[in-house]
Amino acid sequence: GAVVSQHPSWVICKSGTSVKIECRSLDFQATTMFWYRQFPKQSLMLMATSNEGSKATYEQGVEKDKFLINHASLTLSTLTVTSAHPEDSSFYICSSTGTSGSVLMGEQFFGPGTRLTVL
Amino acid sequence: SQQGEEDPQALSIQEGENATMNCSYKTSINNLQWYRQNSGRGLVHLILIRSNEREKHSGRLRVTLDTSKKSSSLLITASRAADTASYFCATRSNTGKLIFGQGTTLQVKP
To answer: Distance between CA A87 and CA B31 in Å, rounded?
Structure first.
């Protein structure tokens, strides 16, 4: 299957700082990438859908100015948590679908996740 | 919003036993997928069942889909300690987004 990587795998930062998380599709081109957050012992909550070359679409309740998403190329999307606070501590996971498959029917490939801890 | 509900929330069984997890959803779907997540890790795709399919097998996994009841089940036969993980069902909305259920945490005791 296709491989999606995330960097860093974990990060600890001070409150008020910004943190950037990268999501890369390693062996395929991803026109669409999805960003999720997951609190301990809970399910994944979709934060936003990112399409290459256009603005991300955010889910209701997700602050776009706080969670900046950039999808500048077909293999890279970034999520920047700006002015992070302890309540932003979570597990952030990206996923993507390839260009060849229909986003409606195809499989999504998930990254390994990034654990963010804000002190 | 999350539309998948799963039960049980937690399941503990002995190695060798079968594990059954159920998922219900609210809206019409194109397909339903099951994923596994080991603690602190990303998701691994297990199986996809399309809306016109009723049952699908993959190794020790058996998935059923009942669109009239808007429900699906995942059966893991002859479970192993390595099957210990959280299992999520996910449905795809008409905009392509995956909506995840709350998940079932499975513990298989050796």
So the answer is: 34
Give the residue on A whose Cα is nearest the Cα of B101.
A43
pLDDT band at A103 (very low <50, low <70, confident <90, very high): very low
Interface test mutation site (partner A, options B52, B99, B100, max chain A beta carbons within 10 A): B100
Residue B40 to residues A40, A42, A104, B30, B36: CA-CA distances in angstroms?
Answer: 9, 12, 28, 29, 12
C-alpha A1/C-alpha B20 separation (Å) is: 26
- Could you list the beta-strand ranges (E) of A3-118: 4-7, 10-13, 19-25, 30-38, 44-51, 57-58, 67-73, 76-81, 90-98, 109-110, 114-118
Compute the distance between CA of residue A4 and CA of residue A110 in angstroms, rounded to an integer. 6
pLDDT per residue of chain B (110 residues) written in tens, 0 to 9 = 345 678 888 999 999 999 999 999 988 888 899 999 998 888 998 999 999 999 999 999 999 999 999 999 999 999 999 999 999 999 987 777 788 999 999 999 99
Residue A108 CB neighbours (<10 A): 26
Chain A partners of B96 at a C-beta cutoff of 8 Å? 32, 49, 97, 103-104
Q: Give the gyration radius of chain B's Cα atoms.
A: 13
Residue of chain B minimizing CA distance to A37: B42
**Mean of all residue pLDDT scores within chain A:** 88
